[in-house]
Write a sequence for this structure.
Protein backbone atom coordinates (compact mmCIF):
# COMPACT_ATOMS: atom_id res chain seq x y z
CA UNK A 1 0.00 0.00 0.00
CA UNK A 2 1.15 3.52 -0.60
CA UNK A 3 2.48 5.58 2.21
CA UNK A 4 1.16 9.11 2.40
CA UNK A 5 4.01 11.06 3.93
CA UNK A 6 3.51 14.61 5.10
CA UNK A 7 4.28 17.18 2.45
CA UNK A 8 7.79 18.42 2.49
CA UNK A 9 9.07 20.73 -0.22
CA UNK A 10 8.02 19.34 -3.60
CA UNK A 11 7.26 15.78 -2.43
CA UNK A 12 3.73 14.41 -2.63
CA UNK A 13 1.80 11.21 -3.27
CA UNK A 14 -1.75 10.74 -4.54
CA UNK A 15 -3.75 7.55 -5.01
CA UNK A 16 -5.98 8.17 -8.05
CA UNK A 17 -7.65 4.76 -8.30
CA UNK A 18 -7.99 1.59 -6.27
CA UNK A 19 -9.69 -1.75 -6.75
CA UNK A 20 -9.65 -5.31 -5.46
CA UNK A 21 -9.78 -8.62 -7.29
CA UNK A 22 -11.65 -11.84 -6.47
CA UNK A 23 -8.78 -12.95 -4.20
CA UNK A 24 -8.98 -9.75 -2.15
CA UNK A 25 -5.72 -8.33 -3.55
CA UNK A 26 -5.64 -4.54 -3.57
CA UNK A 27 -4.41 -2.56 -6.59
CA UNK A 28 -3.50 1.14 -6.43
CA UNK A 29 -2.62 3.63 -9.15
CA UNK A 30 -1.45 7.15 -8.59
CA UNK A 31 1.30 9.69 -8.81
CA UNK A 32 4.14 10.89 -6.65
CA UNK A 33 7.11 13.24 -6.61
CA UNK A 34 10.40 12.74 -4.81
CA UNK A 35 10.12 9.39 -2.95
CA UNK A 36 7.22 7.12 -2.04
CA UNK A 37 7.34 3.94 0.03
CA UNK A 38 5.13 1.05 -1.08
CA UNK A 39 5.05 -1.43 1.82
CA UNK A 40 8.84 -1.83 2.22
CA UNK A 41 10.02 -0.64 -1.20
CA UNK A 42 11.07 2.99 -1.65
CA UNK A 43 10.71 4.40 -5.17
CA UNK A 44 12.33 7.69 -6.16
CA UNK A 45 10.95 9.70 -9.06
CA UNK A 46 13.19 10.32 -12.04
CA UNK A 47 12.75 14.08 -11.71
CA UNK A 48 12.00 14.87 -8.04
CA UNK A 49 10.27 18.17 -8.84
CA UNK A 50 7.81 16.54 -11.29
CA UNK A 51 5.26 13.76 -10.79
CA UNK A 52 5.77 10.13 -11.82
CA UNK A 53 3.08 7.42 -11.91
CA UNK A 54 2.89 4.14 -10.00
CA UNK A 55 0.75 1.01 -10.06
CA UNK A 56 0.99 -1.30 -7.06
CA UNK A 57 -0.50 -4.61 -5.98
Amino acid sequence: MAAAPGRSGSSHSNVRASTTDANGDVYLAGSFADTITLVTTAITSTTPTQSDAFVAK
Q: What stands out?
A: Residues 12-56 form one domain. Strands lie at 12-20, 26-33, 35-38, 41-44, 52-56.
